[in-house]
Write a structure and sequence with these properties.
Blueprint lengths: L1 E7 L9 H5 L3 H15 L4 E6 L7 E6 L2 E6 L9 E8 L3 H10 L1 H4 L3 E6 L4
Antiparallel strand pairs: 1-5, 1-6, 2-5, 3-4
């Protein structure tokens, strides 16, 4: 089964949040980068992409046939999606194990594991 792992950054530092990122030592920064690289090289993983900060988002809605746009994310910034990947795994337990290795999960964020509907 394929699972989408949605990475919610929360308060986890990223290079896009320079103040928080700078609080990590160079060794910690390199460890985070190495962890993501190892995850992307895990068999069954299709690496996704890291997203720009939530402030760069444009939210689109349709109302009465008109397109409405709003600067910024749909959700609160702390809840914003920071990236994703797809993992083909034998079962949910394997997907949960991979999600637990994602640095954001241990650094103030969370990883949502959701099965992909295959029609």
């Amino acid at each position: 089964m394929k699972y989408m792992l949605l990475i919610h950054q929360g308060s986890a530092p990223t290079p896009y949040s320079p103040e928080e990122w700078a609080r990590l030592s160079e060794d910690e920064q390199q460890a985070v980068a190495a962890d993501y690289q190892a995850i992307n090289q895990t068999p069954g993983v299709s690496p996704g992409l890291q997203l720009q900060p939530p402030e760069s988002a444009t939210t689109v809605r349709m109302e009465d046939g008109r397109t409405l746009t709003t600067d910024g994310p749909f959700v609160a910034v702390k809840e914003a999606l920071g990236g994703y990947l797809v993992f083909e795994a034998d079962d949910l337990d394997a997907a949960i194990e991979l999600a637990s290795r994602i640095p954001a999960a241990r650094m103030g964020g969370a990883v949502e594991v959701r099965p992909i509907a295959e029609w």
